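Protein modeling request. Please complete all fields; requests missing the sequence field cannot be processed.
Requester role: graduate student
Desired output: 3D structure, token encoding
Chains: 1
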Amino acid sequence: MIGGRCLSPYIECMDTNLFRSPLTRALALAIAGLLLLGGCGGGATGPDGGGSVTITFTPAAQGQPLVIGQTLACAVHTDPATAVEVTWRMRGAIVGTATEYTYDASFVQRDTLRAHAEAGASTRDWFWVIDVAAEPATTPPIVPNVHVSAGPDPVQVVMTWNRIPASAWPITHYVVKVGYGGPVTLQNWESSPTLTEVPHLAGQAGYSATFGLADGLAPGAEAWFAIRARDNHGQLSSLVAGGYTVITSEWWIEGRVTDDVGLPMLGVIVGSTAPPRNGNTDGAGHFRLGPYRSIDAVNVHTTTTDHFDFTSAPLSSGADINFDIVLPYRYVIDPDCMAYGASFLDYVRDATRTMAVAGDTSATRFWRWESYPVKVFLPDSTLATGRQMDDLARPMLALWNDTVGEAMFVEVASAAEADAHFRWVTDAAAGYGQVSLELPSGGVIGNVLPERMRIEVETGLLTDRFFQEVALHELGHVLGLIEHYDNSCPTSGHLMVVGASGNLSLPEPIHPDEVRAVRLISHLRQGLDMAGYAH
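Delivered output (535 residues):
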């Protein structure tokens, strides 16, 4: 080869060292001149070498692109048909002597296949430049727009994806798998559980599949979902698409609906939104709502006609929860208490310090004694005047119990076992008497769950009856009527006003509004958000 041109079919290449001397170069050029007399152009040494036989080669095109796995069939022909001697060469070696040769494309490379043919006096040479490329990708592409999310019901997972718009071979199915120990990859694809195979439908752009317990999903488990497309040649997508989620678990809400005196309410509509669930209470006031997902935050609400309905703050859980609801009756309060707009609910909120305060979400949180009756200790004490304080205060415990109709107080034998204990003092800071929260230390009555209280009553009060009225009043604070409402109900005969006196002379020493409020307080759920009640 000189200057990129053929000198002879028998000269594949020459060592360039041969052309270093002028003598050698001259000799080579002379030889080349003689050889060129046979012709060397267009890849052949003349049409027939001057003989009477025409020699041709197929394929005629000298540039041949192939991909790995393909073959190229080459052949020598004579006209007229006659015997012909053929030599096939490639990479400097003879690779065949028949009139036909098949090239197998096994590697990515550029090859040159040469043929020399002699038929009688005719000779001819030909060559093909063969470019072998890698086999073009025919596997389906990655599935697009894959999303994995929790389904509408517990333990459900929804996977969505879009169709593959173009593929070498038609898509027939989408194969979905799941893994629990980590992502599903090409390496662990075969060992991962198959959830489904969704048929590919012509013209359908989007797809969706929902899985649940029936598909073997494990509640609460971390899960990696994966998808690949399969074509009609059985080939799967070259890459895995998918998404991660935590499988939701199932939980229920159940409880009882009772009124302010603790009686079960039948037929109350109890429901929730997002997701919507509804039911009615049975004869025992029982309800059950669900199922909910572990990611749901549920507001439970009631629907009645003559009670204050309730809507809870968002409830969320991974397990079943008990949620009892107390619905106060819409009592009409004393008309003298005009500041409450005749609303029993607002009256109770004021008395229990659970009125809404802007910017303070804890202000409406309700706290009461953990259990009833409240255990009270009355220390035995007699003044020089003969006044026996414990004997005077004891009937006031009974009066609260009898008026409310439930055991609100019980007397115990020692201060150590008491929830509230009396002290007889001569210097009550609040005047006639007061109640202080001892435990929890540093707490404020109405803002925390009470554990222990101290009741102080002035011993030097003018009359025994007034002493008893003060004791009766302070016991009202112990039962949860924390605030005085003298400016709201000044002349109605309510006990819990500042400086109340003469109540034991009234037909009802404890006002019916106060009786109903104390009864309701004893039945409300601990820590309740009073803002949940609607007017």
